[in-house]
Write a structure and sequence with these properties.
The complex is a heterodimer.
Chain A (H helix, E strand, L loop, with lengths): L10 H28 L20 H7 L9 H30 L7 H10 L5 H14 L7 H24 L3 H9 L4 H30 L2 H6 L7 H4 L11 H21 L1 H8 L6
Chain B lengths: L14 H12 L4 H25 L1 H11 L16 H8 L1 H33 L5 H9 L6 H11 L6 H8 L12 H30 L2 H9 L4 H12 L1 H16 L3 H6 L11 H10 L4 H34 L1
The chains are: A mainly alpha, B mainly alpha.
Chain lengths: 283, 325
C-alpha cells in the first residue's frame, strides 16, 4: 500500500507506536522469566536480588526429562501422554469434520444452514458443565484415566472450529467444477478425492494445528478424568509447586517444554490463526 | 445462536453471495441428484453429530435428570427431590456470589481487552517495516498454555522471590506484596493474566478490520481536511464495528469458560473471594461428589449462558447494522 497523506507520522501516531512496543515487550516478560530461570543452575534461580549472571545449564531439562524431578508421574511420560491425546483428538477431529464440512457445503443439502449454525452454537457449551456427566459415564464404563476419555471430548470441543474452517474453504471451490465433473461421469468419491481434497489441504492443516494446540493446552478434563496413566503435562506440571515452595528450575523447564511446540505451531500458523479462531469470519 | 454477529452466516466480506448463488442453482438440479443429495450429506454428517450430541445434548439431558435427584457419587442416584437443588442454588449466597463474580470478571476482562486491543490494532495495522515483527511478537502470549502462564505469573508475583517485587523494589515501591493474599490484588492478577493472554487476539481481529477499510473514504476525508483522529473516529471506527462485535462475542463466550487461571492462581481464595461459579461447580461435583447439587448449578449456568449470549449477539448485531451502513 502506498503511503498516503494520512499515513504521515504525527505525534499521536508515534506515541501509539511507542506504547505498542512497550506493551509487546512487556508481553514477552513472563516468557523471558520462564526461559532464563529454566537455564539457571540450582541455587541461582530462586534468589533476591535476581541473579543476572550465571553459567547457563541444561540440568533442569535433563532432570525433568529423566523423570527425576518430583512429579508423581515422570514428566517425560506426561509429555508423551499429552502428545498421544493431542494426536488422537486431532486425527479424530479432522476425520469427523471433513465429511461433515463437505456435506454442509453442498448447496443441494437442505439442512446445511441450520446444521452449520447448530454446530457453531455448540461452541458456547462450557466444558465445566460437560465434565460432570462425562465423569459419571466414564466411571461407569471404566474409562477413567484412559486416552479415549480425553480424545473424544477434545474432538467435540474442536469440531465447531474445524467444521467451519473446512466448510468455508470448500464453499469457495466453484460448485460448477463439481457439477461438470459429475456430468462427465465422475463419481462423488472421485470428485472429493480429485477436486476437493487438493484444494482443501491448507485448511486441513489450519484445522489440525488449531485443534492440536487446543487439545495440548486443555486442563479441566485432564484434571478431572485422569489419575496417572493418562495424565497430561498441564496437569502434571502443577506438582512442581507445593506447600514447601516451588522448584523454579523444574517448573520453568517443564513450562518451556510444554510451551515450545505450540509456540512454534502458532507462529507457523500466524497468518491463519485469527481467521481460524473466528470461524472464518475474519480473513 | 444462529450466526456470528452482524447477522451474517459467512465472512463480513462477500461470502454470503456465493451461498445464495448455490441455493438458486440447486433449484435447477436434476431430481435424481436432489434425491441423492439429501441421503449422502446426512450420512456424512453422522460422525460429527454423534460426537457433538455426546458432548452437548447428552450432558444437558443427564444434568437435567441428575439435578432433580439428591445423588452423590458414593451414595448412588439418590431420591427424587424435585426442584430442591434449584431452590438451594438460588437461595445460597455463595452460589449467587459465584454467578456474580464470573459475570463481573467477563465484563471487566472483555472490556479492557477490547479497549487495549483497539489501541494496539491501530499501530499494528500501519504498514511499516516493523509491523510484521510486531504482529508476530503480539501473538506470543496468546500461544502460551494457560496453566503455564498462570504458574509463571504466580511465581513472578511471589512476595519473596518474584521478579515483579524485585523490580518494584528497585524503583522504591514495596517489594514484598503478597498479591494472592489480598482480594483486590488477586483480582488484579486474574484479570491481568486474561488481558495479557487475550488482548493480542482482539488486536489481531481489529487489525484485520482496519486493513480491510477501503482507501477511498479515508482519502476523501483527508482531502476534506479531517484530522487523523477524526478519520479514525468517524471513518474507520464505524467500518470496523462488525469486527469488534466478533471479537467481543467470541471473547465473552471464551471468558465464561475460564477455569485454568483461577484454579491454579487462587483456587477461589483468599477465602472465597475469587470463587467463580466455574470453580464451585468443579468443587461440588468433583471434590464433594454431590452430583445432584452440582448438576443444578451447572443447569443454571447453562441457562444463563444460553440466555445471555444470544442477547449479546442480537445487541451487537443491531449495533453494527445501524452504525455500519
Amino acid at each position: 500500500m502506498a503511503t498516503t497523506a494520512t499515513e504521515r507520522p504525527t505525534t499521536l501516531r508515534l506515541a501509539g507506536r511507542g506504547l505498542m512496543w512497550v506493551w509487546l515487550l512487556l508481553g514477552l516478560f513472563p516468557l523471558f522469566f520462564m526461559v532464563v530461570t529454566s537455564l539457571k543452575p540450582e541455587g541461582a534461580a530462586r534468589t533476591r536480588p535476581v541473579q543476572w549472571f550465571f553459567m547457563p545449564t541444561l540440568e533442569n531439562y535433563a532432570n525433568v526429562l529423566s523423570g527425576g524431578a518430583g512429579t508423581s508421574v515422570g514428566f517425560d511420560r506426561l509429555l508423551f501422554n499429552s502428545a498421544a491425546v493431542t494426536l488422537g483428538s486431532t486425527i479424530l477431529t479432522v476425520a469427523v469434520a471433513l465429511p461433515a464440512a463437505y456435506a454442509l457445503s453442498q448447496p443441494t443439502f437442505r439442512a446445511r444452514k441450520r446444521l452449520s449454525s447448530w454446530i457453531l452454537s455448540t461452541y458456547m457449551f462450557p466444558p465445566i458443565v460437560a465434565v460432570i456427566p462425562v465423569f459419571i459415564l466414564a466411571g461407569q464404563v471404566g474409562l477413567i484415566d484412559t486416552y479415549p476419555v480425553l480424545i473424544v471430548p477434545y474432538a467435540a470441543f474442536n469440531l465447531p472450529i474445524a467444521v467451519w474452517i473446512l466448510r468455508s474453504t470448500i464453499q469457495q471451490i466453484p460448485y460448477e467444477l463439481q457439477e461438470a465433473a459429475m456430468m462427465d461421469g465422475a463419481s462423488r468419491f472421485t470428485v472429493m478425492r480429485q477436486i476437493i481434497w487438493p484444494l482443501v489441504v491448507p485448511a486441513v492443516a489450519t484445522a489440525s494445528i488449531l485443534s492440536a494446540v487446543l487439545s495440548w493446552n486443555e486442563f479441566l478434563f485432564s484434571l478431572s478424568l485422569t489419575r496417572a496413566a493418562a495424565k497430561t503435562s498441564p496437569v502434571g506440571i502443577q506438582e512442581f509447586t507445593g506447600m514447601f515452595g516451588t522448584q523454579w528450575g523444574s517448573l520453568t523447564a517443564g513450562g518451556t517444554l510444554i510451551v515450545a511446540p505450540i509456540l512454534v505451531l502458532t507462529l507457523i500458523l500466524r497468518r491463519r490463526i485469527v481467521s481460524g479462531l473466528t470461524f472464518g469470519a475474519v480473513k | 445462536m444462529t450466526s456470528l454477529p452482524g447477522g451474517r452466516e459467512t465472512a463480513p466480506g462477500e461470502g454470503g453471495r456465493r451461498t445464495r448463488d448455490h441455493a438458486r442453482r440447486s433449484n435447477t438440479a436434476s431430481p435424481r441428484r436432489r434425491g441423492f443429495g439429501q441421503g449422502l450429506p446426512w450420512l456424512l454428517m453422522v460422525p460429527a453429530l454423534v460426537v457433538l450430541l455426546l458432548m452437548t445434548i447428552f450432558p444437558a439431558a443427564y444434568l437435567l435428570w441428575a439435578s432433580l435427584h439428591g445423588g452423590t457419587l458414593l451414595g448412588g442416584n439418590g431420591q427424587f427431590v424435585g426442584l430442591q437443588n434449584y431452590v438451594d442454588v438460588l437461595t445460597s449466597v455463595d452460589r449467587l456470589k459465584g454467578f456474580a463474580l464470573i459475570l463481573v470478571f467477563v465484563v471487566v476482562a472483555v472490556s479492557i481487552q477490547t479497549a487495549l486491543g483497539l489501541a494496539l490494532a491501530v499501530p499494528l495495522s500501519a504498514q511499516t517495516r516493523s509491523s510484521n515483527i510486531a504482529t508476530t511478537i503480539a501473538l506470543v502470549p496468546f500461544a502460551v498454555t494457560p496453566v503455564v502462564s498462570a504458574l509463571v505469573f504466580r511465581e513472578l508475583f511471589n512476595p519473596n522471590y518474584g521478579w515483579v517485587g524485585y523490580f518494584m523494589g528497585l524503583v522504591g515501591l514495596p517489594d514484598d506484596i503478597a498479591w494472592l493474599s489480598s482480594t483486590p490484588l488477586a483480582w488484579v492478577l486474574l484479570i491481568g493474566i486474561d488481558v495479557w493472554q487475550w488482548t493480542p487476539f482482539v488486536a489481531l481481529i481489529l487489525m484485520a478490520g482496519l486493513k480491510s477499510v477501503p482507501q477511498e473514504p479515508v482519502e476523501a476525508a483527508a482531502i476534506d481536511g479531517a484530522s487523523g483522529w477524526q478519520i479514525f473516529r468517524y471513518v474507520k471506527l464505524p467500518m470496523i464495528l462488525p469486527f469488534m462485535a466478533i471479537a467481543v462475542v467470541l471473547r465473552t463466550i471464551q471468558a465464561f469458560k475460564t477455569f485454568d487461571s483461577f484454579k491454579v492462581l487462587t483456587n477461589g481464595g483468599p477465602g472465597t473471594s475469587t470463587e467463580i461459579i466455574n470453580l464451585e461447580i468443579y468443587r461440588v461435583a468433583l471434590q464433594s461428589f454431590r452430583i445432584g447439587a452440582a448438576s443444578a448449578i451447572a443447569i443454571v449456568f447453562l441457562i444463563l449462558l444460553l440466555t445471555l449470549v444470544p442477547l449479546l449477539l442480537r445487541a451487537v448485531g443491531r449495533g453494527t447494522d445501524e452504525e455500519g451502513v
